[in-house]
Input
Amino acid sequence: MAAMAASHFFCSHHMNYSSDSISKFSNPLGDGSLRPYFSSHKSKGLSSFQTKCRNSRTHIVKAISDSSKHERKQVELVYNLDEKLNRLADEVDMNAGLSRLSLFSPCKINVFLRITSKRPDGFHDLASLFHVISLGDKIKFSLSPSKSKDRLSTNVPGIPLDERNLIIKALNLYRKKTGSDKFFWVHVDKRVPTGAGLGGGSSNAATALWAANRFSGGVATEKELQEWSGEIGSDVPFFFSKGAAYCTGRGEIVQDIPSPVPFDLPMVLIKPPEACSTAEVYKRFRLDVSSTIEPSTLLEKISKNGISQDVCVNDLEAPAFEVLPSLKRLKQRILAAGRGKYDAVFMSGSGSTIVGVGSPDPPQFIYDEEDYKDVFLSEATFITRGDQQWYTEPSSSNATSHMDKSNCVG
Output
């Protein structure tokens, strides 16, 4: 055997190397050294090798090799098997087809929101700077064996789990547009409160469309997904931007823009338990007493000078404060207590979230007073996404709160 150029291996854990998961080591090099490599092919599921090694981190492989001078040498190779197994698992997902997917579903704020006219169809035309932020839900998608129904679950009560839910609407829409026959099990870990003006439900719908397209191999373009999503709701198309957009029409006309704000600019979101009905807010809106400043002027000022109180105009604040007078008092108190602390304090969307930009910390009275013990609190930052990628949660994102969980639905 010494006369043959051969290598003999054994694992210190006496494990079997499956031929379809890990190739044999390469032949000895001219200097008698060995170079291990892993093949790119991997069968579905865990191999016997993965199963036996999954709880072991560092492994020693001993090798006996004949060098070019026919001298028998024994060497020990020490390597981190976990890293190689993780790499193999990634190759399994790519080669075997997607069966599970976990995605971040971020919400948004309106840095400014101008209502410019009332339309013949009863809706209003708006002009707004939308921006995605780091607060969001986590949604897990799995292929269902069912060929007739999706199944939806969540971590909080009160969420509709049928066709009323925007996620189910989005999956139904995708199948209608593409002819896909895939159905899903979906679990939503809710963090974004409803009735908050943060677009949590719209983001969930956009995320579901993105996921369905991934499971189908990307048969639809991002542009098509964006166009289709307008059938679900006016805010849904925005989430197919890169994260910062100037939105007009009902909100469905989305113009991508470079983010005009720094990503390390902190903010705090403060939302009382009471929600604002969007329909009721618009019902009380009066165009003749709203702001007259041009939206393009606001966008230009923010792009040049950043966020300040005078540019964070929201025409829906006045009617929202009529619907919920306590919300007006909350904003006034935050402004008074946070003098010099925040660059701007304003309401997002149709409410009822008040945003303080410039600091991640709420005013002390939020902690001290019984009236505010159930408010939702979260720090956040601005985020965007890359080409052909969905949004990812920043590692530093920390959504915490004095929080009434019954309020976190939608």
